Structures are given as structure tokens and as C-alpha cells.
Amino acid sequence: MSNVLVFAELRGAEPKKVSFEMLSAAKQIAAATGGAVVAAAIGDGLSGLGAKLGAYGATKVFVADGVAKYSTEGFANILAGVIKQENPAVVLLGATAQGKDLAPRLAAKLGVGLASDIVGYRMDGNKFVAKRPVFAGKAFTEVAYLAAPAIATVRPNVLPVGAADGGAAAEVAVAADCGCAKAQIIEILAGASKRLDLTEAERIVSGGRGIKDKANFKILEDLADVIGASVGASRAAVDAGYADVSMQVGQTGKTVNPTLYVACGISGAIQHLAGMRTSKVIVAINKDPEAPIFQVADYGIIGDLFEAVPLMTAEAKKLMA
Amino acid sequence: MNIVVLCKQVPDTESKIKLLGDNSNYDQEGIKWVLNIYDEYAVEEALKTREAGKAAKVTVLGLGPKRCEEALRTALAMGADDAIHVEDAALDGADAYATAKALAGALKGVDYGVILCGKVAVDDDMAAVPQMLAEMLGIAQVTVVSKVEIDGASVKAYRDIEGGAKEVVQAAAPVLLSATKGLNEPRYASLPGIMKAKRKPLVKKTAADVGSSAAENKTQVSGWSLPAARLAGKVFKDGELADRVAQVVKLLREEAKVL
Predict the structure, then answer these.
(1) Architecture of domain B2-216
(2) Nearest CB to A281: which of B14, B38, B252?
(3) Do A193 and B163 count as a contact with CB atoms less than 8 A apart?
(4) ipTM
(5) I need a labelling partner for B246 at 20 to 30 A (CA). Which of A64, A127, A195, B81 fits?
(6) Is residue B244 within a helix (H) or strand (E), and if so which, with residue range?
């Protein structure tokens, strides 16, 4: 009744970083609920998950091996089975493409509540209370639960990863699903970008209307290559056709949370700021000294991005060498 | 085949969000209310499907107070055929679960092959009602859809996942699809469309009709807060650009420690 279950999402056969972030949080939650941290993983050709997840606090790992493809219904069925057996107080999933698709379906299946994309939590006695942004971060709310288990998806890159000092967890095999979901993935089309998704990126270089042309994103790509960043864009840049919609940061795009956000030729509309204001450090490069982006930037450079960004790339190259 | 589109009325994304004095909710005074942008993509896709002869009728379904009629009328003005409005004070403060249950109740007896909706409402950002509704109806779901081919009972949807990659999902109707940006360019309501919308059928349903209310809530939202203000930092505007850039890069390493 008091355990905390983490759905350890995998990339291939390896846990995603958010899985470790959730396990580390689960350790603290379980300390308050008086339970243990358990994990569940679904995938194909899995091995060593007991040790990998145990290091971050899991004491038991439910493993459904032989599931080659994601399906909402299949994954929800497997997890619902584990939850009914284990009866945890709290269930955490990553607020990733998969977790966001899956968690509400799972909650409805179990007849319980959900808080999406949480960025924090507190314990009210032994009750879990989630903190989450609304209006893309223009405000926050707290969510208390009226039914158990409390289910939440956790935004990647927010909660700290604790020490990997735990011993190997026991692995418990769980039957794979029948694979008979009503919706089936028939193909996965790779993205044009080999970079980390914006929602998981540690560093982001973003371009706005000031970039003026799709081809000019090359200079942002060059900087991103040097500092190991992903490349984003403002709504203005996407709507003008300069950038793919998957790159959009803001209230109608992605909400991002990197340690470094470099905004190039972005004026800083309220809906853009909503999507990136929780970045640890913001650098703004803009010709217009009145641009609102400077009001949130830690470091502002007033100047032409077409000169400033290549200079920054050259400086960073010297530094990173 | 008929299509149902879920429509929510939300504050315009340019709205500044202020809180009530007791932090129990946001202040709705002076808010400009609009049809959720992602729901506009859903309405547009439904209309395109009907215009291509692949669907017979487009019904829009919304839940909320009286003012939500405007959002439904917007969808009707774009070209939807009729509307269902679930309006009842007993649903004030309904969470995602109670809302999904109400929508499922409102769809009883409605003939549909596809349910289209936005991937998220840009107010509470919960992105949960579509998936919960699909589960309650026992139908397939594909969320975050940026391209779809609907041909009778066969639906092929392209779902955006991380890093610009897409999952191609095959499903048979009935299926719920949640739309994301890139699916289409929503049309504007024409003046004749707006005039016609006033006469299109809009059916009201109560909490009792749909069998849900805020008493079905599984979560309780409280404690609103605003993010800590970000203070403006150092702005480098004088001197050689190369020197200023070099200074910032140096500070990123030595002061901010992020490079």
C-alpha cells in the first residue's frame, strides 16, 4: 500500500535519464510513505535492469521482455496488471512522448487521478502532492489525489539524479501482452535531426524571426555542434517556414528546461517565454535593445546575430578544445 | 461515418495570468476566450475529411460554462454541422477524469467513427482527457497526430515522438485522434459561415444527462502560484562585438558554470 512504482522508460534496452530522476525522487517519497521503491520496464532483449535500476533505489523490478513495439493499450494492460498486484501508493512515469500517451489511459483504466508533467512534489504527511505548471509555466498548481494510486508524469531534466549506490534489485518476469492492441505501430520514421529532443536537452540554441531564412539555421547548428546543444525555434520562425514544427519552443510548442538556452533573434513574446523561462541560464542575442527577451536573459548581447553567433561558435570552440 | 470533435474554450495564449487573492484559481477578469488552438486543428481535419467525402457529419462537443457556446459557435462557423454543449454548475471544477466521464456520457447514442480533439488544452496543460475518454469508450487512440489518412474504417495516423521522429500507427475505427500543430492550417470562419452558425443545432446536456459531475473528481487542484520573477541580467551593448561575445562565453564557463 505504501510502495512507489516507477515506470522505467527505455531507449532501446537502456533506461532513459528521466527514469533515474524518477527513481531518485521515488526514494524520498517512499521514505515518507514507509514503503519501498519498485520499478517496471517493458521492452525487448532486456538484461541487467535489476542492477541498472537497483543502483538508483529500486528494490524490485518487474520486467516484461519480448515486447518489441510500443502500444498504448498493451503497455497500459501490463502496467495495470503490475499495479493491481503491487498496490503502490504512487506511480511515476516520464512526461515523454510515450509516458504522456500512456499515463492518462492507465489512470482511466484504474479509475484514479493523474497529474501530468509535474516539476516538483511535497509530502503532506504520507500523502503525495504534485506541483505542476499550467499555462505553459505562467503559473503553477498543486494537485492532491482523492484515489490511490496517485499517478504522475514527471518532466525530464527537472528532478535531480541521486547517487547510484544501491545494490541490484530482484527481477520479476511479467508476461508480455498479447500484442493485439487496436492501434498498431507499423513504421517509425526517423527525425531529420540526430540531436536530443528539446524536452530532454541540456543545452538549446534557438532561432527566431531574426534568422530570416531556413538556410540560416546553419549558423545555429554550428554553435549547437560545438557546445553539444539541440536546436529550437520560436513560433514566429516556425510559422514563417524557417523551422520544422518539432523545433518550436513555447506555449503552443515544447516547454523546455535546459541548463543553457541561447535565444538568437528571438524578441521574447509572452508565449515563447512561457516555454523556456525555467532554463537555468538564458543568453539573448538581439539587435533590438528593447526586445522583451532581455528582461529574462542572464546575459544579453545587443547585436546582429549573423555576426554574434559565429563569433560565439569560435569562442566556444577555443574554450571546449 | 460521422466525426465528433472535442472543443474547449481557453484563454488566448497571449493572456497574462494573474491569480485571485486567495490563490484558489487564476483571475478570469478581462480574459479573452478563444477556441483552443489544437482543437482548431481537429475541427479543420474533420471538415477536410467530410469535404473529401470520407465522413458524413461533423459534430462538435464541448463542456464548460455558458461562455463555451462561443467556442462551439466558432467551430460551427468554420463548418461543423451541429453541436453538443454539456453545461452544468455541477461540473464546475471537474478534473480530467470527471470531464472524460462526462464526455463519454454525452457520446452515448451518438454514432461516430472518429473522435478528433486537440492534443492538449493550453490552459491546464493536462493532456489527459483524450486518452481517458478513449479508455472509457474502449476505443483505440493515437495522440499528437501531425498527419492522418482516414478512409472509411481504416485510419493511418502519424504521431510525433521525440526528436522530430514519427510513429506511423494503423487503427480501425472507432478511434480517437489528438491533433498537434502541423496537421493542417485551420480555416477562418467566413461571414456567411458565422451567420449560418447561429441557426445550426446546439443541444444542451446537463450533468445528470451525461452521468458525471465534479463529485467524480479523482484529483483536487489547489495552491496556485506564480513563477519566481526572472531578474534581468547583464546586457553587453558597448564596445567591439567580438569582445562582448568573448566576455559572455567566459562568464558562461566561470560564473554560470554551464559550458
Answers:
(1) 3-Layer(aba) Sandwich (3.40)
(2) B252
(3) yes
(4) 0.95
(5) A195
(6) helix B241-254
